[in-house]
Design brief:
3 domains, globular, EC 2.4.1.1, about 850 residues, Rossmann fold, glycosyltransferase, alpha/beta, 6-stranded parallel beta sheet, 21 strands
Length: about 850
Amino acid sequence: MDAPTRSSLASKQTPPQPFSVPFFGQADALFERHLLSDAVVEPVGAYERQRFEALGHSVRDVLAAQWIKTQATYDQADPKRIYYLSMEFLIGRSLTNNLTNLMLNPSFKHAAIEAQLDWVGMVEQEPDAGLGNGGLGRLAACFLDSMATMQLPAMGYGLRYEYGMFKQAIEQGWQREQPDNWLRRQDPWEILRRSEFVEVKLSCSFEMHQGNLQIVAGHPSTLIGVPYDRPIVGFGGRTINSLRLWSATAPDYFDFQEFSSGDFVGALVGSISAQTLTRVLYPDDSTQKGQALRFAQEYFLVACSLADLIRRFRRHSDDWQLLPEKVAIQLNDTHPSLSVPELMRILLDEANLPWDEAWDLTTRSLAYTNHTLLPEALEKWPLHYFRQMLPRQLEIIYEINSRFLSDVRSRHPGDEGIVERVSLIEEGEEDKVRMANLAIVGSHSTNGVAAIHSNLLKTTTVRDLAQIFPERFNNKTNGVTPRRWLLMCNPDLSQVISDAIGEDWMEDFSKIVDLAPHAGEPGFQHAFLQAKRNAKANFAGWLHSVSGQSVDPDSIFDCQIKRIHEYKRQMLNALRVIVLYNRIRAVPDLEITPRTFFFAGKAAPGYRIAKLIIKFLNNLAGTIDGDPLVRGRIKVVFLPEYCVSLAERLIPAADVSNQISTAGYEASGTSNMKFMMNGALTIATRDGATIEMAEQAGEDNFFLFGLTAQQVAESRGWYDPRWHYDNDVETRQAIDLIASDHFSQNERGAFGPIVDILLHGDHYMHLADLSAYLAADQALCALYADRNEWARKAILNVAHSGPFSSDRSIAQYASEIWRAKPCPVA
């Protein structure tokens, strides 16, 4: 793996020092002032939420001067700036993260406790920001952290979702979506920049009809994008960048004449319709209404962000030729692909540039990250949405396509097959714009997010485009920030590491490799295992306090936490549990180490099978809990409302990380990296970044199993899941137990669809990999019995996790794609 350290960008930077403002000299005064002036309460009588808000405002007061200084430095130095566009930023909670990066977290926690404040209670008052769903959004958050830490002049652009995606509740085993009203109370981190609003013009308008937002064609309208800025604190507090989130509103949101005449709803409908645009993340796109809203969201993000960054560029230069020298725009997946026609529209219609010049500037300014190989995730938008909302952008797309296909025909005369495959327009019953093709053709760089993913992207998913533009394709393996995912969330292990190798790893994570020589030391192994035991006990205590569930911290904590999707194969994990369950029932005195299997993740509201899998996992948990023969030996726990804060608690406690996607389907994965950093051992298929992780730590320190991506592809024509059912006893017994309604005794036939999928198709090849999974699992359990050898392998995993820091990822983006350099702030 090509994994340079971040030293190439930061070699001249001074080591971080604790934040220079004498925080504790003014902390009490700031805290009391905000309680008195904002909440109008005496400090002694304040509620926990009021204390949290006062604390958050106090920390923001302290970092505000450096935040302003950062922006002033950029304005004065006029460096090349990076603009990161993403529909998701899964930032989690900000209080402890900001204090960690200001290098104040342990001291401030101690000071709060000394002042007899409930530190944990205050922290718990902050909801996870409802700005993302899964790995895509968490990666974007880690990248912002790394850019600030590495002193890169950068800004994130996203949408300010009022209700996030949804809050997941479990009712009788089923996922129930509830509003995630995370902004119902004041957020102390965001700054409203009302004067920096952006007008977004559409060729349609919107109206509310029976509670739904509908398009009204032929009635042009204007939306107002109002920006809210959040601080992104780099480690050491030297650089504080911004995440700018756009909220939609209407220009004339209140008609007094209508209101005074009694039409109360009509007076407000314009505002309600506009605000609905940024109400939720990813509306249910199983309906046309949901699809239209999502399309409008994506354009709104692009239009606001490009207008804003062009405005910044124009403050310093009237020379459009300098745009690619001063601006790097990264498109995080296909969602912001409308940046291609929108930037062309700005350059053609507002800057009045000729086509060739505008096209050259557009492609040199834009870069695209692909995050998936799944065809359904490569967005394709019907042309009628463009005709209704964005006819000018559609004209531009047609012109881009015409010129591009003309060039393709000149390269491949007579080959209309390749012309059809690479076209930006997919013709069919309903013509659609292929957004991935648009992003690739309209940018200078397309990167995958793991070595296998980037290779499959070039050789299968968009093979023809990769052959046309070979110089544009590259790999940038994902990474996660060690500040949040080790230093902050796992203080016991962090202290053990620092005691052994010093604290330099906190900023330069490549130095974590210095831990490797300690892997065989009994004293260090003992300290490592004790830190893990503490994390498990802490998690068990927290889980009991919030849910009443009891788990044994001396059992093996075996975890699979990620979005619920068939290709991620939570059902393969469930089949493993059923096989173990059957073994114990068959041999009651079977000796096994007690195990707790944790599952967590959300299913998209319209994804029926994924929601049925959640139901099955909960029924599996209930059946095992109700069986006295296995109770206390194996336990299944489904943790609802998976979020950053939950991951921060569970990942440090995990012994085992399951990364068991069908080979060739997982682009990268980032939970795998977080588990590795925290000393969990990985049981996995050879997929995503797990391949590179095993290369770094050594395959003998991983538990790899199953078909390779090539074997999966080669077996498509003949694979028959019934063969495994007929020839493998444990596989047949597990499926028969599901089919017999053993796990649905009061809901006969409930899991018939799961059995049908497994036996009649099994597209994601669960049964092909089950036996190999069980064998790897058996080897894992045998190793766990040797605590010192387990510790040695786990320590080696931590020691070789350095290349999977987001700092390394961003160093590569900055040097190889953006050509951007640090801009240090005094």
